[in-house]
Amino acid sequence: MPVSSPVIGITTLVDEPNTRIRRAYADAVFRAGATPIHLPVPRPEDRDRAVARYLDLCDGFVLTGGFDPATERYGQPTDPRVTREHPDRQAFEEALLNALDQRARTPVLGVCLGMQLMALHAGGTLNQWMSDTVPSHAAHYDDHVHRIIPEIDPAPIAAGEVTSWHRQSVSDPGRLRVVARAEDGVIEAVDLPDRAFYLGVQWHPERTRHDALGDAIFRALVEHCRQPASR
After folding, report:
1. Which of 18, 22, 105, 174 could in theory staple to 196 by disulfide, Cβ–Cβ 3.0 to 4.6 A?
2. pLDDT tens per residue across span 163-213
3. Could you tell me if residue 231 is inside a domain?
């Protein structure tokens, strides 16, 4: 049966002794017509149980922004200049992505760090310090607004201006398909076309004013969650 009011699980940061996330994510999910719930990062001993329960509870997921992932397990040393994401959070979201591989009809939206983890999970690599190689790197940080351009036709997202805050980017998306880039060539959106809805965006749609690149992305996530057998 279709789900009239989907439950969207939103991943959270670890800020010891708290877990937290920006309110804007829940606001965007509410505006899209779904019910948001925050997913506390479990302790390592509770990780598998938490992933299983979250999968049973949620019709779709938002992997949110955060700090920078450790990349050693992906064959790439972590740049010493980065601010590492809490290891419990990274391990939890990696486990969640692994489990979601077995649920191809469960919609997933990755935002900023979320997109980067999706790319690493798909065998990709990161540009860990954009200022070394991207002259226009400052346009992608501190909630600056810049333009993105779809790279495929038809594309699941539109051209327009987005709000960004990241010092890293995806350099190789692995098995993911590049959907859009910034005008400077930075990869801005990726997906897997053989999944029901599996979209990663480098910008922050929860605080992007351009509707087609902001709230419309959350509406698309929720609409896919309303389809039968989304879990």
Report:
1. 105
2. 999 999 999 999 999 999 999 999 999 999 999 999 999 999 999 999 999
3. no
Range of the domain at 85: 7-225
What's the structural domain count of the chain? 1
Q: What's the CATH number where 117 sits?
A: 3.40.50.880
User: Is the pTM for the entire model greater than 0.90?
Assistant: yes
Spell out the SS3 assignment of the chain: CCCCCCEEEEECEEECCEEECCHHHHHHHHHCCCEEEEECCCCHHHHHHHHHHHHHHCCEEEECCCCECCCHHHCCCCCCCCCECCHHHHHHHHHHHHHHCCCCCCCEEEECHHHHHHHHHCCCEEECCHHHCCCCHHHHCCCEEEEEEECCCCCCCCCEEEEECCCCEEEECCCCEEEEEECCCCEEEEECCCCCCEEEECCCHHHCCCHHHCHHHHHHHHHHHCCCCCC
pLDDT, residue 231, reads 58
Within-domain flag for 1: no
Averaged over 39-61, what is the pLDDT?
98
**Residue 213 domain-assigned (yes or no):** yes
Task: Tell whether 2 is covered by a domain.
Answer: no
